[in-house]
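note to self: dont lose this again. the chain is below, predicted strucutre after it. 176 aa total, dont forget to put it in the shared folder this time
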Amino acid sequence: MPPSLKPPTAPSLKPPTASSLKPTLATHSLKPGTVAPDLQRTTVPSLKPTSRPRILLIDDDHSLMERTAVYLRAKGFLVTSSENVFSVASTVGSEKPDAIVLDVRMPALGGDKVASVLSRLCSIPIVFYSAIDEEDGEALAAGHENARFVSKGAGLRCLWDCLVEITGSSRPAVGL
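---
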């Protein structure tokens, strides 16, 4: 009878022998201290959440600052808000933001003065976010290294776009 037509043989019920259980690593020609290719570790992607960009938001208008903070948090940023321009240096030191959103016209100390102090302390990007004239805002940002201007009239989406560009965040703007 041809082999393809023979009925299959029943599996053996004998226990395996010691020689049939030996590892097969001996078939690899390995140098001492190396690992067989089939036993090498593979890289597993990290399960840690990706770090979210940190934003320091400074504005004397509490309600506008809070609305801006809520929007940016919903878009994936970690936001710290402050109305106190005199504690900016310590807040920057403790919060370590990736970018600072700074109003220009504040009664105690203008945003341009705050930016001048910050530029001597650190190189964190600054976004002047103000209702001042567009041309004046662009000129202000041009006068400071690592600064940009976004008009409050342009809306929160424009601020978000600017912060995404600065921080390298890749989270899409959906919803709000």
